[in-house]
Amino acid sequence: MNIQENKMDEFGPEYVVKVYDSKIGLEGILVVDNTILGPGKGGIRMTSDVSEEEVRRLARAMTWKNALAGIPFGGAKSGIVWRGGLEEEKKIIIQGFAKAIKPFLLSKYIAGPDVNTGEKEMSWFVDAVNDCDSATGKPVNVCNGIGLPHEFGSTGFGVAQSTKAAVEVMGLDIKGMTISIHGFGNVGTFAYKFLTDMGAKVIAIADKDGAIVSKKGFDKNLIEKLIDAKKSITEYEGGAEKILMQDFWKVPVDILIPASVTDVINEKNKNDIDAKLIVEAGNIPMKEDVEEELFKKGIMFVPDFVANSGGVISSCAEYKRRSSEEMFIMVEEKIKKSTKEVMKKALEEKINPRIVAMDLAKRKLISGISFEC
C-alpha cells in the first residue's frame, strides 16, 4: 500500500492511497479529499478503466455534495479495477481492498455503493473488517437490521425531487414534460418510476445495450417488468423505435437526465442536445467547459452534486440509524431546498448553476458548522 499526502489546493485531497496485491489481482485507489465536516464519504466504483484522475474528481464532487446537502460527512471516493469475473473473485477483491484501507475507515473514510457495487458488496466489505459502520448501503438483514440499501431507490428518488424543484423554479409544471434518460441502472430506473408517478412523460431511454424512443411515452407496466427481470431496455415490446446510441442525444425533450457514466456528454454529442434542462443524475456526466458551453446556449442544468445527493443523504440516515421512512423525508427536504436555492440564484443572476452551487458548498465547508442528519 502506497500512501501519498498530496495537497492540491486549500480543500484537498488529504490522502491518495494506492492499493496493489498481485496475488488476488487487486488494483485499487482511495482518495480522501476533505474531512473538515466529518469522515470522507463516497462509494466504491468498480470498472475496467477506473483511474486516479477519475477517483480524484469524484472525491472532490463528494466534498461539495456533502457540504451542500448539509450532512456531517467530508468528501472521498474509491475505485477498484474490475474487468469482470466470478462472484467469488469479486468478493475476494472487495474484501482485500477493505482490509488494505482499514486504517482509514471511520476516522477518514466510510465506503458505500457506486458503479458495479451494491448492497451485496457492502455486506462483504463490512464482514471483511468486522465493522458495521465502515460502509453504508448495506442489506437490511445484516448488522442487526440497520442497513438502508441503495436498492431502496434513494438516489433516483432524489433526482426526481430535484427535477421537479428545478422545473418549478423555472415556472413550469412537471406534468406532461418530456424526458429522456441515459443510463437505466439503479438511479435511472428509480428516477423513471418517480417522475412518471409525478405525471412526466419519459419518451427516450438508453442503457448499455441500446436506446429506444416513443413519442407517446412507454407502458409503465412493461418497463417495470423489464426492470424487475433485469433485462435490457432494448427488449421492450410496447412498440417503441430502436435507435442508434448516438441518435439518443438528438431526441428533442424538455428534460435530459444523464444517469450513466463519467463524461457521457462530450465533444462528440454536445451539439446534438435539444433540451431545456439537464438534470445530472450521474456523477460528472460532462466536463465543466462543456457545461458552460451548453449554459451559454440557453440550456439550464442542475449540477450532479445537487441532483444526485439522495444516495449520500440516505447514507447519513443509515449511519445515524434512521428508518427508511425518515430517510425519504430527509432526502426530499434537503434536495428540494438545495435545488431551489441554486436554481433561483442562477436564473435571477444569469450565473452558471455549478458556480452558484460550488460557492454555497464552499461557504458551508469553510464555516465548519457541524451538520446533523
Describe the structure.
- The structure is a single chain.
- The chain has 373 residues and is of the alpha/beta class.
- The chain has 2 domains: 138 residues, Rossmann fold (3-Layer(aba) Sandwich); 214 residues, Rossmann fold.
- Helix content is 40%, strand content 17%.
- It has 12 helices and 14 strands.
- The strands form 2 sheets. Strands 1, 2, 3, 4, 5, 6 and 7 form a 7-stranded mixed sheet that branches.
- A hairpin with a 4-residue loop joins strand 2 and strand 3.
- Helix 11 crosses helix 12.
- The longest helix is centred in the C-terminal third of the chain and has 26 residues.
- It starts with a strand and ends in a 6-residue tail after the last helix.
- 52% of the residues are buried.
What characteristics describe this protein?
373 residues, Rossmann fold, 2 domains, 17% strand, globular, alpha/beta
Assigned CATH architecture of the largest domain: 3-Layer(aba) Sandwich
| Euclidean distance between termini CA atoms | 34 Å
Mean model confidence by pLDDT: 94
Counting DSSP E segments of at least 2 residues, the number of strands comes to 14
Helix content: 25-40%
Give a short account of the largest sheet. Answer: 7 strands, mixed
Alpha-beta classification? alpha/beta
Overall number of structural domains: 2
What is the level 1 CATH name of the largest domain? Alpha Beta
Q: Bin the strand percentage.
A: 15-25%
How is the CATH topology of the largest domain named?
Answer: Rossmann fold
Radius of gyration: 20 Å
